Structure to design on (161 residues):
């Protein structure tokens, strides 16, 4: 098990399962990452990817709550990685994704995202472990993360307000 606090191998960086090459020369990847409890750097419990976005392995288990889905392209399209929490929806403490390297590589760069289950406030960072440029508090889904953060979201915090 890789942990967010050790996620240069990380969030979100566990290797994806093999995927079928697409006609455009890229592998098709749809991923599911599961993290444990809300905290500064929520630990990665598992990461699964498939060429089939309807694969049973990508479905939520009863004890998992979807927190956020990251997309490759603006407008919520392209490869995606849905991040699930083992301890429920966001509260005022929220979850911390200290190293999104695995997600970035898995979706070929984060450009948009949906939030779920009370994770209505987000803060993006251009470096791992909450370094670099910070976005300030963002509210709601992001159709496009903006030029500064496009393909450049390396860590993130989510919480409920």
């Amino acid at each position: 098990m890789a942990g967010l606090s050790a996620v240069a191998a990380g969030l979100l960086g566990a290797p994806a399962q093999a995927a079928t090459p697409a006609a455009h020369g890229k592998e098709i990847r749809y991923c599911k990452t599961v993290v444990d409890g809300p905290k500064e750097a929520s630990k990665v419990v598992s990461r699964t990817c498939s060429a089939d976005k309807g694969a049973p392995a990508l479905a939520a288990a009863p004890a998992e709550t979807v927190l956020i889905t990251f997309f490759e392209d603006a407008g919520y399209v392209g490869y995606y990685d849905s991040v699930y929490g083992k301890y429920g929806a966001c509260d005022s403490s929220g979850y911390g994704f200290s190293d999104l390297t695995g997600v970035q590589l898995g979706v070929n760069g984060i450009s948009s995202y949906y939030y779920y289950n009370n994770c209505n406030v987000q803060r993006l960072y251009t470096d791992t472990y909450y370094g670099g440029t910070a976005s300030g508090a963002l509210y709601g889904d992001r159709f496009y993360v903006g030029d500064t953060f496009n393909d450049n979201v390396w860590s993130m915090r989510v919480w409920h307000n």
About this structure: Residues 125 and 134 are 5 Å apart (CA to CA). Residues 1-25 have pLDDT under 50 and may be disordered. The beta strands are 30-35, 44-50, 65-73, 77-85, 95-97, 112-115, 121-127, 131-134, 138-139, 155-159. The two ends are 31 Å apart (CA to CA).
